[in-house]
Amino acid sequence: MTFSMHDWKRSTLGADTRLLPWLHNRGSLTQRIMQHCERFAVRNVRDGKARIALDESTVLDIAPQQLAWSREVFLHANDQPVVFAHSACSIRSLGSAWHSLRNLGNRPLGAVLFSHPEVRRMPLHYNALHAEHQLYRRAACALFDPPDRLWARRSLFYLHGEALLVTEVFLPAILKLRIEESGSRKKVSAKLSIST
């Protein structure tokens, strides 16, 4: 299956250069954030059946009128929201290949995706989201003074032929987390705290 979304591209042209290491890294975003902060937490804001955006339905081959499974969380680093993450899959997939995503609560999705040897990640696509985009609005609700645009990336994950679409919207505070460019990167031991 390929992306058929006109606004999502393989390019990050125009993005802040400080954001590029976060946008381009294909590993676990959760793990990467934890390596660069002292306190990490996941705050679940929505988890269950929902109507997803038309472009998501198209990618996941779900009829627009059908409900999908959707999860939305904020990833916090040092008590600040740094990423808004939105995941979606078909109800059928949740009952089969992706059953482990049920009842994740405040646990990170990355722990499931990057620990399962059979999960395959497809190429990343990017978009600069503006206020008219529903994911921008849901991400911006955690910001006191949201910028004009928020960069996001998304990709499909496959397990046993079933697709999961994961979108990550990067919030301004992500730039406060230092990424050292040298080969000997100092890794800070992050404590995974559970927020309520």
Could you characterize the architecture of this molecule?
The chain is an alpha+beta fold and 196 residues long. It has one domain: 3-Layer(aba) Sandwich (Chorismate lyase), CATH 3.40.1410. 17% of the residues lie in helices and 33% in strands. The chain has six helices and eight strands, in the order H-H-E-H-E-E-H-H-E-E-H-E-E-E. The protein has helices at 20-24, 29-35, 54-60, 91-94, 110-113, 134-140; strands spanning 39-50, 68-77, 80-89, 120-121, 125-130, 149-159, 162-170, 191-194. Strands 1, 2, 3, 4, 5, 6, 7 and 8 form an eight-stranded mixed β-sheet that branches. The longest helix is centred in the N-terminal third of the chain and has 7 residues, at 29-35. It is globular, with a radius of gyration of 16 Å. 33% of the residues are buried. The model is unreliable at 180-196 (pLDDT under 50).
Beta-strand content: 25-35%
Helical fraction: 10-25%
Mean pLDDT: 88
Summed up, the domain count is 1
Q: What Rg is obtained from the alpha carbons, in whole angstroms?
A: 16 Å
Task: Figure out the total of helices.
Answer: 6
Q: What pattern of helices and strands is seen along the backbone?
A: HHEHEEHHEEHEEE
Secondary-structure-based class equals alpha+beta
Terminal-residue CA separation: 37 Å
Major sheet: size, sense and barrel closure? 8 strands, mixed
**Which stretches are low in confidence, meaning pLDDT under 50 for 5 or more residues running?**
180-196
- The number of distinct β-strands equals 8
Shape: globular
